[in-house]
Structure formats: C-alpha cells, structure tokens
C-alpha cells in the first residue's frame, strides 16, 4: 500500500505548535499541510512504506508501541451496491475480549487518514480500532485523458450526506468488526461528518449493538443547520461542497446534485428540508432513547457549520445517559488539533471523549458518572495588565468552565432590554430596562457592512478558541446600512465583577417595515468596550418574505446560545443589518428597512442570565 507524502521535517516543534495555535484548517476548504503530513507519516511508519524514520521521537515511540501490541491492517470493506470502503484496522494482540471503537471519517479529502494519531491513542488505551471513510469521501484527482484516480484513503461510490446508504454502510462495518475482532462491546466516535453518521448508525442498528457514541462538532438537525428562520446557510454549504476532494459531478449522484443546486438557488426548499430531516439524528431520538445509547456531544458557541441551538434541542430530547460540552470558538477548533497531534499536555476536549468511552464501553470506574449533564466554557475574562509585546492593557483569556445539571438550569433568570429611540450619545438607538414606544429607525438594505458574524467559516473561530476573538471597530459600522442600539456602561454585578453573566438563548422581538416585498434581518449582539471596540456575543439571521410593502410586520426570533461574561463598564450593543456573507438574504438593494417600537408592542431584547 502506498501513500502520497512528503515527510521531510514532519512533526517539528514549529509545525505542531502552529497546528495547536491555528487548528488543522488553513481556510474553510484547506487542511494545514503539516497536519496531513503528520497523519501520512504515521501511516507510512505503521505500514512500513516510510523509507527512513521521519517522525519525532515521541511519535516514533507511539507507533512502535502499537506495532508491538497490535496487528495493523488496511482493508477495503465491501458495502451495498458494490462500493468498497477504504478502512484501517488496529487489532490488539490478545485473547481477552476487548471493545472496538469504530470511527467514520469526517468530511475531508484525507478520509480516515487525518486522525491516525487518535487511533493510536485508542489502541494504547486498550481498544481495537476500525476507522473508515464514508462512501464518496476522499481525494479524487483528474488524470488528463484518463478520467479520475482516487487517493488511498478514498472510498468508492458517491456521497450520501449521512443518508440511508451511510447508515447501511455503518451496519456493514459493524458486521465486519464482529467478524474480525470478536469485540466485547462496540462504540462509535466521530468528528463533524463522522459524528452525525455515528449517531445515525447507532439509532438505526436493529440489533442495538452500539454501546456508546461520541459526537464531536456534531449536528442534531441537519435541516436546521442548513436552513433556519427561512435563511440558507450558504457559506457553510459552499465550503462543504468545495471540500469533498473532487468535482461535484464525480462526488454526488444526480439526485444529491439536484438537492444542492436547489439549495444554492433557493428553490424547492421544502424538499431540501425533508432531505435534511431524514439525515437528522433528532428525527430518530425515539430510537436512540429506546436503545439507551449513552451519547457525548461537543459543540461550540460560534459554530458556523452546525449552530449550537439545534444541537441543544436534540440533546434536550434525549433521555439516555448524555453529556454536552460547549466550547469557545467554531467548528472543530477545540478537538481538531487534539485528534491529530500530541500536545505538551492533554487536550481536554479529546480526553473527556476518551473518558466517556472508558466508562461506558470498557466499564472503567472513573469520574464520568459524576459529571454534570452540561459543561460550558464561558467567553471571556479580562485582565487589566499591560501586555509587554502589544502594550495593550486588556488581555483576553478563555474563562473557566461552568457546569449545570441540565440545559434548562443554564439560564436562571431573564431580563428585558428595550430598544429605545436614542442612546446617551444621541447617535444610535439605546438599550434600556424600561420600555419606550413610538419611535422608528431606518436604514438602506442590501449592502454589506463591517458588522458580520465572522470573517470566515471555521478559521475565525479557531482564533477565538486561542483567545483572539475578532475585534470589531464599531466606528466603521456604516449607520446608513444598519441600525444600532447601545446600552449605557453597565456596573459590576454580584458575580465576580461581571456586569452581566449571559447564559442561554437571547430572543429579539421588534416591528419591521420594508419598502420591498422581502428583507433579511441579521441581528448581532456585541460586547462594546470603553475603547469603542467590540466582540461578538451571539447572532442570528431572519428572512421575511411575502411582505406587504410599507406595512408593519411583527418579528420575533431566537439568537444562538451564548455563555458570555460582560465585564463591568462595558456596554451591550445590538446591531441589525440586512446582509451577512455567511447567509443568503432576501434584501432588495436600495430598499428601506424600518425598525420600530409601536405602542402596542415595545421592541425588546430578552437576555438570559445565569
């Protein structure tokens, strides 16, 4: 078996440090070459194709340890329709029954190859491992005059996007594991695409063979991840399409190509939603509950692929042993590097996933039974000291984690902040604790602004995970193309100096009028510092269609969940725009959008507190 790799200097301290800081993605559609090279070098060392030692000493020792303890294999597993799935096995050399962890690969051109480091870690912990690439996923290269050739980690067939063919393939892989490992128990673990497939296979196995699931950077409702509040999540889907490793016509069958084309064009969306619901683990929560599959979830507050609310809703619908971690950052930021490379210390998101498996699959008596159902990492703490490199007197560091016995317990109270005609600076609208009606503010719709939810899918959130959230220069917010409401500076609260402990899901209610028949509202809630710089707390778009022009329409919608400590003397800033690069919009360029607070219904932001 051969692997395309260039391993000169693989796994250098500088490379590993870069991956740890910046994650495994250099863009929404590009893996860091060093992360790929580390994975390929591990595989080449395991299968004996490395011409010379190319790994740093610690990784070399790890591969040698696993080689001594296990038999390494690279089978092709025959699946439905003659499709052959690229797979990788680590079978422990023991007569004692051991559990197997099955890992469907994420949505990446490297297929199962990307997380070789994880497989080795699992083997050392006492698990057989069976990793595989879901059908159609993996690098497919065009050869002039000769069609296409697939990479070594690529599976045959076309991508079913976690559909029924992927469920059937998962059951086939379980059959293969039972035949070749005779495991004591079976677990599924996946990151991103693999996490959704893991949940769906566990729900659909008629024999109930899956003892536990670990779902990292996962989804609960694929339909809501793609299309919510009548707004399409265009940037996320575009990134996924461009990250399959090959051309659309090669990677997807005609029916799926039609679904993707309809989604991108904004047509036949009822069919698109039905397609997404079929691929939603939440649609089969009754099956998961009936089988009692212990399920571990990990997600991020600022997810740009699988936003947090739909995962939380799915989590709440499960009655099985369950745990939800919510982290700072965006998709794959917390666990991605920890699944790929060694750290100077343990990667907490991954170590907790391993602990879940150890307890529910290996039966180890560890701390898992005492874990609270929900554990949240809170954005951000602030230290007023001088940074010797930047001269800044405000250093941002990730805050401590908070636990709750349930999601419902995350929010202990709410308060209302009413949108008012003017703030203390007389330029923008205000946010106050008493209602004010009879005002309106208007802006020109259809133009991009500086008030965006994120600069880019995934990569903005990776920086945030490392304590470098996007800084917004609010003076650049063009008030002609958006509307702003700002509170006065908020005094310290009773919880360690934070002015407000935002915990849960904000809700915004206002009245909108447009000169066009449709418009999109993108609400962004910011933390505004004394220097007029801001950081985003949460956001969510809403699209309104079939409007009667120049007629008032009541609009109420939930923003994405947040865990955020607003520091004392900072202000809340609510911004409503008509356009964001993450989403589709129905705003008509040059039309006028008017936000108002009529006497019958005061415009209001409901803030969850904890």
From TrEMBL:
Domain of life: Bacteria
Stretches for region Disordered: 388-412
Bias-annotated ranges (Polar residues): 403-412
Keyword Ion transport in record: no
Entry GO MF terms: hydrolase activity
SMART domains xref list: PepX_C
Record-annotated Xaa-Pro dipeptidyl-peptidase C-terminal domain positions: 354-605
Keyword list, A-Z: Hydrolase
One Pfam family here: PepX_C
Name of protein: CocE/NonD family hydrolase
């Amino acid at each position: 078996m051969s692997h395309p790799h260039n391993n000169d200097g693989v796994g250098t301290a500088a490379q590993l440090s870069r991956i740890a800081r910046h994650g495994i993605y250099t863009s929404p559609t590009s893996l860091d070459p060093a992360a790929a090279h580390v994975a390929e070098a591990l595989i080449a060392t395991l299968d004996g194709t490395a011409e010379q030692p190319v790994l740093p000493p610690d990784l070399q020792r790890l591969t040698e340890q696993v080689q001594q303890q296990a038999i390494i294999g690279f089978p092709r597993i025959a699946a439905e329709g003659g499709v052959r799935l690229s797979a990788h096995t680590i079978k422990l050399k023991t007569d004692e029954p051991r559990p197997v962890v099955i890992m469907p690969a994420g949505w990446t051109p490297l297929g199962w190859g990307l997380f070789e480091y994880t497989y080795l870690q699992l083997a050392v912990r006492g698990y057989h491992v069976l990793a595989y690439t879901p059908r159609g996923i993996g690098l497919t290269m065009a050869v002039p005059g000769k069609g296409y050739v697939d990479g070594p980690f690529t599976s045959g067939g076309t991508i079913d996007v976690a559909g029924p063919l992927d469920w059937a393939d998962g059951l086939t892989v379980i059959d293969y594991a039972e035949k070749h490992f005779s495991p004591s128990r079976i677990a599924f673990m996946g990151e991103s695409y693999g996490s959704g497939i893991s949940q769906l296979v566990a729900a659909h196995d008629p024999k109930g063979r899956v003892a536990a699931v670990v779902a990292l950077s996962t989804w609960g409702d694929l339909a809501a991840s793609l299309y919510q509040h009548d707004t399409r999540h265009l940037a996320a889907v575009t990134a996924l399409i461009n990250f399959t490793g090959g051309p659309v016509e090669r990677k997807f069958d005609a029916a799926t190509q039609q679904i993707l084309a309809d989604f991108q064009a904004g047509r036949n969306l009822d069919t698109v939603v039905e397609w997404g619901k079929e691929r939603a683990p939440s649609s089969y929560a009754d099956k998961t509950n009936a089988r009692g599959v212990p399920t571990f979830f990990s997600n991020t507050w600022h997810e740009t692929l699988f936003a947090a609310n739909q995962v939380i809703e799915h989590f709440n619908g499960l009655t099985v042993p369950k745990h939800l971690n919510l982290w700072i950052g965006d998709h794959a930021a917390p666990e991605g590097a920890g699944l790929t490379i060694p750290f100077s210390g343990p990667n907490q998101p991954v170590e907790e996933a391993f602990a879940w498996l150890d307890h529910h699959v290996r039966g180890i008596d560890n701390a898992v039974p005492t874990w609270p159902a929900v554990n949240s990492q809170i954005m951000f703490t602030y230290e007023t000291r001088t940074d010797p490199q930047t001269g800044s007197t405000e250093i941002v560091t990730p805050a401590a984690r908070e636990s709750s016995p349930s999601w419902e317990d995350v929010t202990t109270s709410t308060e209302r902040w009413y949108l008012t005609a003017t703030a203390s600076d007389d330029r923008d609208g205000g946010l106050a604790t008493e209602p004010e009606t009879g005002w309106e503010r208007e802006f020109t719709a259809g133009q991009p602004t500086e008030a965006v939810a994120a600069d880019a899918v995934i990569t903005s959130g990776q920086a945030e995970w490392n304590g470098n959230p996007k800084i917004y220069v609010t003076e650049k917010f063009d008030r002609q193309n958006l509307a702003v409401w700002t509170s006065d500076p908020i005094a310290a609260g009773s919880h360690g100096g934070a002015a407000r402990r935002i915990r849960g899901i904000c809700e915004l209610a206002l009245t909108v009028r447009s000169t066009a028949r449709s418009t999109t509202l993108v609400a962004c809630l910011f933390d505004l510092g004394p220097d007029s710089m801001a950081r985003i707390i949460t956001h969510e778009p809403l699209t309104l269609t079939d409007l009667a022009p120049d007629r008032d329409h009541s609009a109420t919608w939930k923003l994405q969940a947040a865990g955020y400590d607003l520091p004392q003397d900072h202000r809340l800033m609510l911004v409503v725009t008509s356009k964001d690069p993450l989403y589709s919009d129905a705003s008509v360029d040059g039309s006028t959008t008017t936000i108002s607070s009529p006497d019958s219904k005061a415009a209001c932001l409901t803030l969850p507190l904890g």
